[in-house]
């Protein structure tokens, strides 16, 4: 995954948005990006900039989720009256990681010495939500099985990038195979 991140850093001028802290484990990505995603994440900001668009594109391209932040709007403040403030720090997570932990929360804590407020990530227990797909060898023994799979595959209609189309068709095929397998098992002569 880190290699993919390095390929994507081109969007951030080769520095990944001047990323200062980076940790990738179990599908999570933590960082100080020194850029915001939306005007609402920067005090007194009203327009979308190229760096905001690039930051959002990076998150989207990596298929990461920007977790909701509780306890405040900004993670970084500067000045006596906090005239300048922005959300520069965030936890990002893969869809699988986010789905596996229930009641996931990230909260801003009170800052102590730094101009950045620490963020607490609370995950709870890991509870996988998906069962993994298993191809059953007995399916190949059923007459017409391969023809049925070809028919299903060509019936799935999807547009977009090649990798998206492949992922879409594989997910759709998995659903069809599970449904078919349940009905085929019931029709097997014992």
Characteristic terms for this protein:
Endo/exonu/phosph_ase_sf, about 20% strand, Deoxyribonuclease I, Chain A, three-stranded mixed β-sheet, 2 domains, disordered N terminus, four-stranded antiparallel β-sheet, about 30% helix, alpha+beta, about 190 residues, 5 helices, Putative ovule protein, elongated, single chain
What do these coordinates show?
- This protein folds into 2 domains: 2-122, Deoxyribonuclease I, Chain A (4-Layer Sandwich); 137-186, no CATH class.
- Helix content is 32%, strand content 18%.
- The protein has helices at residues 2-8, 50-61, 95-100, 145-155, 162-186, and strands at 22-25, 28-32, 64-66, 69-70, 76-78, 84-86, 89-94, 105-108, 119-122.
- The chain has a 4-stranded antiparallel beta sheet with strand order 1-2-7-3.
- A hairpin with a 2-residue loop joins strand 1 (22-25) and strand 2 (28-32).
- The longest helix has 25 residues, at 162-186.
- The protein is elongated.
- Mean pLDDT is 79; it is low at 1-11 and 13-25.
- InterPro entries: Endo/exonu/phosph_ase_sf.
- This is Putative ovule protein.
